[in-house]
Specification:
The protein is an alpha+beta fold. The protein contains 6 helices and 16 strands. The protein has a 6-stranded mixed beta sheet, with helices on one face.
Length: 323
């Protein structure tokens, strides 16, 4: 019994040791994986472009794609080991930096720079190669009090479209071929731009709303010309009315002041009826000598006011002498 107990105790101890070793191994791999994940740096590029890996190999070292060694540097000279990178992988013997040119989508992956001498480092990079962004094109359509701008691209994959007013994002959307923006009349003087972007690059087209919406400007110009024409017409009509009123007033005044034909005829008739006669004064100034209108009615009508006054003047001295 005692032996069996010792054996059982030894088994438990062995199992504990194994479990502890396994836990240590698992913890070790977790630490390594975490360290490798933290050291991987992300890089982006576009098709047809190039990328330079940031860390150098100056004297002795390698560059790997995944698990393949594609180039090595010895005695400050580079040797290409993978044919597909010939004429595409360059190494600067002054800086020790690697540059990959003529990138394709299948160049995406993990690259490792492993320097074994001098500056000893091992750096991992995750390269993602994107399609080149299509240049955006903007079309405009005029509305009553606004202008609708439509920004379009030929390829929408992995592309985000954005509308900016100054530095403010007005509208955005991912993986779409077009993105609209309505600009109201009071905002026509603001600056706008459409941006097509992916993680590797972006392309921008500025938009001048006043020139992009010529119909709206034409409407404004037409309205202005119409207002000017209306003002000219109103002014012309006012001038004509004033002239006509002046003419009518003048004619009315002249009509009132000008004698009529009948009035002229009466005046001429009265002038033609006036008759004149000679007056003879006698030296014998007696009261009885004052002519007495004993003649006919026609003769009596010839006596004028002057005759009567003269007769009165002659009678007055005569009466005074007799007194």
């Amino acid at each position: 019994m005692r032996r069996r107990a010792e054996l059982t105790d030894n088994v438990y101890r062995h199992l504990n040791s194994v479990m502890e070793l396994q836990l240590r191994i698992i913890f070790f791999f977790i630490v390594i994986i975490s360290s490798d994940t933290e050291e991987v740096k992300g890089l982006t590029a576009t098709e047809g472009g190039s990328i330079t890996l940031p860390d150098p190999v100056v004297e002795l070292g390698f560059i790997l794609y995944g698990s393949k060694t594609i180039s090595m540097v010895t005695e400050r000279k580079m040797q290409i080991l993978e044919e597909i990178y010939r004429n595409r992988l360059n190494w600067d013997n002054n800086t020790g930096l690697f540059t990959i040119t003529g990138l394709q989508r299948n160049d995406s992956g993990i690259y490792t720079v492993d320097s074994k001498k001098g500056n000893v480092i091992t750096k991992n990079y995750k390269l993602t190669v994107y399609e080149s962004v299509s240049p955006p094109v903007v079309n405009a359509s005029v509305r009553a009090e606004s202008c609708m701008l439509l920004c379009s691209v030929e390829k929408a994959e992995e592309t985000t479209l954005l509308w900016f007013k100054g530095e403010e994002i007005m509208n955005q959307s991912s993986s779409v071929l077009s993105l609209p923006l309505t600009v109201h009349k009071q905002d026509f003087s603001s600056s706008y731009r459409c941006v097509a972007a992916n993680p590797a690059e972006n392309k921008t087209v500025p938009v001048n709303v006043k020139t992009s919406c010529p119909g709206q400007n034409k409407t404004d110009s037409t309205s202005t010309r119409s207002n000017i024409t209306t003002g000219i017409v109103i002014s012309s009509v006012s001038v004509v009315v004033l002239v006509l009123a002046a003419i009518i007033t003048k004619k009315t005044f002249l009509k009132k002041t000008k004698p009529t034909a009948r009035q002229t005829q009466d005046s001429v008739s009265r002038e033609s009826e006036v008759q004149y006669t000679a007056i003879q004064i006698s030296d014998n100034r007696q009261a009885g000598n004052v002519p007495d209108p004993s003649g006919t009615v026609d003769d009596y009508s010839l006596i004028t006011v002057y005759d009567k006054l003269e007769a009165h003047r002659m009678i007055l001295p005569y009466n005074t002498e007799n007194v």
